[in-house]
Amino acid sequence: MIPIRDELPTRKFPFITVILIAINIIIFLFEILQGQGLEPFFRYGGLVPATLWGKGELNTSFISPWLTLISSIFLHGNILHLGSNMLYLWIFGNNVEDFLGHFHYLIFYLISGIFAGLVHALLFPSSTIPTIGASGAIAGVMGGYLILFPGARVIVMLIFGFFVTFVRVKAVLVLGIWILLQVVSGLTSLGMSSRGGVAWFAHIGGFLLGVLWCKIVSNRYYRTHYW
């Protein structure tokens, strides 16, 4: 089940979401230019839990290990990684930005990413594998969307072998299935941090922060129901 778009209009142009997408694309193009230097680029710009806690090899770049909690949010491993993240950011980010306001949304996005990274680093403190990607921050946006617009309709693509169809489902179902998959995958990944792969608990941490954050603010601000 792959989300394609939602049917929830916005009142204001989501320029922060657009800027975030543009920054991620520009940085990815810069990554392509690194060639053989891409691996050290990821090691210095990505989040390495062992380095963050002072257990691994010292980071010799100009970037503080703690700043990698932010820099890692803007790095991606390949075009599929980038494309899927930016698709989810566009689908769910524009409406969350519309509700929170531009500056509030930016702070919310960055803190979601930072918290997601910390959750991963706390659970796998000895990992020396760089963690990169906007997934944790975007998971926060998705958690916020679940709270703010649970009844919004999302068009998803369903694939059954060679058969492809598109259906409209409620956001609560799409996002509920998504976070359930993250939890199941995260639990099965415990004890395998040395193998790399997806930082499932970063997704879970970001999502839970987004749920809590938007649950609090939704009780303080007027919310328009578009669906």
Strand order of the largest sheet: 1-2-3
Look at the helices and sheets and give the structural class: mainly alpha
Main sheet attributes: strand count, strand direction, barrel closure: 3 strands, antiparallel
Mean pLDDT: 89
- Please state the overall shape, judged from the principal axes of the Cα atoms: globular
Put simply, the count of helices is: 9
What is the straight-line distance between the termini? Answer: 21 Å
Enter the CATH topology name.
Answer: Rhomboid-like fold
Order of SSEs: EHHHHHHHEEHH
CATH superfamily: Rhomboid-like
Which regions are unreliable across 5 or more consecutive residues at pLDDT < 50? none
* Domain module count: 1
Estimated share of beta-strand residues:
5-15%
Q: Which bin fits the share of residues in helices?
A: 55-70%
- Per CATH, the class reads Mainly Alpha
Assign the CATH architecture. Answer: Up-down Bundle
How many strand units?
A: 3
The Rg value, from CA coordinates, equals: 18 Å
GO molecular function, one term: serine-type endopeptidase activity
EC number: 3.4.21.105
Family: Belongs to the peptidase S54 family.
Organism: Candidatus Atribacter allofermentans
Could you walk me through the main structural features you see in this protein, from its secondary elements to its overall organization?
With 227 residues, the chain is mainly alpha-helical. The chain has a single domain, classed as Up-down Bundle (Rhomboid-like fold). It has 9 helices and 3 strands; from the N terminus they run βαααααααββαα. The protein has helices at residues 15-32, 38-45, 49-52, 68-71, 79-100, 102-123, 135-148, 171-189, 200-218; strands at 2-6, 153-160, 163-170. The protein has a 3-stranded antiparallel sheet. Strand 2 (153-160) and strand 3 form a beta hairpin. Helix 7 packs antiparallel against helix 8. The chain is globular. The two termini are 21 Å apart. The mean pLDDT is 89.
